[in-house]
User: Fold these one by one.
Assistant:
Number 1:
Amino acid sequence: MANSKYEYVISFEVEDEIMLPNIIVVNIDGRDFSRFSEMHEFMKPNDKRALELMNDCAKTVSEQFPDIIFSYGFSNEYSFVFKKETKFYQRRASKIFSLIISYFSSVYVTKWKEFFPQTEMRFPPSFQSQVISCASMEVLQAYLAWRQRECHLSNQYNTCLWELIRNGKSGKEAEEILKGTHKQDKNELLYEGFNINYKEQEAIFRQGTCILKTEVQHIVKYNKDGSPVQRLRMKAIKVHSKNIASRSFWNDYLCLCRELGQFAEDVNKIKPDYVKSFLHGSKMMTSTWIVIRIDGCHFHRFSDVHEFEKPNDAQALNLMNSCAVGVLEEFRDIVFSYGVSDEYSFVLKKESLLYQRRSSEIVSAIVSLFSSMYTIKWKEFFPQKELKHVPYFDGRAVCYPTFEILLDYLAWRQVDCHINNQYNTCFWMLVKSGKSKIEAQNNLKGTQSQEKNELLTRLSGIIDYYNTLPLMFRRGSSVFWHMHDDEKMANRGNEPVRKCCKVVVEHCNIIEKSFWEAHPDILGEKLSCWKPLRCTFPSDSHHLTRRVTCCDCEVAKFARSDNLSPLEQPSTNCL
Ligand code: GTP
Ligand code: MG
């Protein structure tokens, strides 16, 4: 990210590193999955294909991220346990849970047809995720025992419920019958009422599924004499076990003991305080603007593999914009979003109570939905290109306490868009003109905006070439709800005109105050009480030396008070 005087907004980002010796577990859970399963006619109470799809996705995730040593899942949830000493994304919680959920969501979409060849996916699946940090092996053991108990209880309850419904009871009647029943009662009901021996049900339903890493010999090449050269490689395998938190299961696997440790005793009772800690999720401060920023992971490689046009691929950007529109339509608390390159920022209204303002739930729901939409919509935007790599994004949540700082945040992103785009346009034009990448880099070192514009004009032979580029490349994309008159009603004459709302994608200058004045509804704040912040950097800092650049003219204007003399007004056509 390039520098600008708006960079002070970074200081609002909070550290969320999970310290050693905590063991990192990422729990993921289907979002609104009862609707998803109904729309796709999953079998009740268990759909084996849907469970195997979840298992296959979890296996792919654990193969993709080698630090995941053990996973356990049932129904529409999975837990991924990382090796004790993992440095995965330097142990930052939001990076970790967002990447995992994003990857999982994209894989779920990619694999759908393998498991449901006859069923069209009718809407994008999404999941929520969070990091559970386990302070010791004892806590991890309690967590696993707790999840497997949940698998058993919910499966037993649902098996009874659906047998009762199949035999003529209404949903309400069935629930009434099961109220207050114990495990034993349910087993008897199943056996005596429906001739079902619960213990003979498939293990995948009763016990859930584990994904384990085991070491296998793998042939990497052959010697000249034909003898194989073998290396040890980690392979993910699927296992079912009655008690995954027992010593006899766990301590049998060398890899688990080496990377995580042994279980000292068996768990008899799960401590309620531990369960309370598993359910805890931190909330974002009330009455602040929440911004969720997502960013493509390894998109440099992703764009190379898919041969995106350099430096900007209009279709790739349109695909990002289309996903952002989908996110705004789904989460009505998002009032504005801004995207550039492989990133998008989503602004939630100050009063939002979405998921009780729990950051991991908000971030994961948005990043997951965005990822599955990106994967689904790929063919629409790139009909000729096969999706070769799984697209995935990281996400973070940041609170901005005032309207001014929120606008500075958005200005920071747009300044960044401009600086990067101008640099990249010059870089690729130099490369196209025959320079090597190193030469192009050296040519651009230390150049100011004006010089870059002159270079572009010289190389292209077009006066003011930079400003002929599409606005989307120069300004990024703003996505927001637009209020407009209902055209049908407006044409009907005297009736009062109804207002309609739709999500629009525009490429506006959001650094300019005039944009926010023209759209007071977006953030619902009055500009009259808007006092721009003073720059807090020392006058000799490198941030101020950047002022001379074209876009920083805008920055300077934005950060000073309103009563500049006309001579001081910088040009407004920089962006
Ligand atoms: P991480 O985010 O740290 O995983 O790295 P990254 O590889 O995603 O790079 P970063 O997010 O810093 O920057 C985004 C990268 O995506 C750019 O550097 C480009 O390489 C690539 N990219 C994004 N949009 C386009 C595009 O329209 N065309 C091309 N050719 N590349 C693009
Ligand atoms: Mg990226």
Number 2:
Amino acid sequence: MEIIMIKLGGSVITEVDHPITPKISKIRELLREIKKSKRQNIIIGHGGGSFPHVPAHKYKIQEGLINSSSLFGTALTQKAASDLHSIIISEMLRLKMRAFSFSPSSSVVARGKRIMKWDVAPIKSALELGFVPVVYGDVAIDMKQGICITSTEEIFRYLSGKLKPWKIIIGTDVDGVFTSDPKASDGARLIKVITRDNLNKADFSNIRRKFDVTGSMRSKVLALYEMSRNSHAVCQIINANKRGRLYDAISGKKVMSTIIKG
Ligand code: ADP
């Protein structure tokens, strides 16, 4: 089974500077591109953007159960992530896509923010039956710190080890990995290929967003590097804000991107 895993970045599908604001037309456009590709065996993952990031940041969920507000904060974060997820599923159904939702927080077990256990048999079966499994960045039970956030990248990292996809596409709001944050520096250059040799060359120091809780571009690069090593998948970071680019990437056309080879 030639599986493709596609991430729709939170920065693409929500207004990151406005809490709980989805970009509906962008969501529709990207889902249409996925549908138009007519590929089978697609797993969609999506980030949370401005939905869960605000409560996650406020209650410091990434640090675990740290005080008496942590449980309530976790509940708020889980709800916010699932609200955006529900919008994505509704939009898929509008397009008559056979979405099959998987909430990571219901069954993931993590330890120190890394997923340790997750029964992927239902996801595999859903694919075999012809569904489009949809996962998303969520909270999870953590054996070390009580609770944590599992980013879509972490979810893909775990799934890729089990399902061995042949391609992983991460759609975000920049053309790929640059020598430094392209939004903050004019001289930033796109790094077209990342291997072990230049893995640590890029500068990720700019913290652009008030509410980022999942580690931004650095965590994507490290997770993709590991995924590429574990599954030998083609790992690509593309700009999903550019119309048609996701479709081209799924179709195997050459697009502006960063390819990560473990
Ligand atoms: P998403 O919400 O799509 O998962 P993030 O906002 O977490 O994406 O990460 C993408 C952001 O990372 C870009 O918008 C960019 O501003 C920032 N960034 C920081 N350093 C870099 C870099 N070296 N190359 C590319 N982007 C970078």
